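Chain A, query sequence.
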Amino acid sequence: MNETLRRLDSIHSKLVDTITPIEDPLFSRSPADKEWSIAEIVHHLCLVEERVIKELETELASPPRKIGILRKFIPTSIVASRLLRVKAPRGVNPMNPPARAEVIANYHAARSRLKELCSTHGRNRLKQVIFKHPFLGEIDGPATISFIGYHELRHYKQIREVIKKLGM
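Chain A, predicted structure.
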């Protein structure tokens, strides 16, 4: 779990370092029709992380469960690939993101809550929860935390693409 949390911290820091200097007008500008702005991408990351936290908290309040042995080998790293396009579920679609400062603050707050959840419950208890991912299927808690990091890496790559398209 420590390695996963270090990876989460690393990508989170890289993403924040990348977006912090971007001025408000460019932060909210979409690079093309039907493409997300940086504000929308970061808002999406918050929505996903908050939803994951909520579902993990619900699972943690329930009796321990285990996923099937074969489900333990689902490679969450596939989520980082920008080659596979997956439409975001409706509940995590970043409509009307808040202002730049608020979306970044929300992004930090969601990560703090996730790390607190991990430190409070630990790897062993998280192994006893099941998260139903819309693409990966049923995965356990540690795999869910790993997914968050790879999902963030995917969108970090997307932010880099948006920055290039906007000529920054």
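The first helix runs from residue 2 to 19. The helical segments are 2-19, 24-27, 38-60, 100-126, 141-165.
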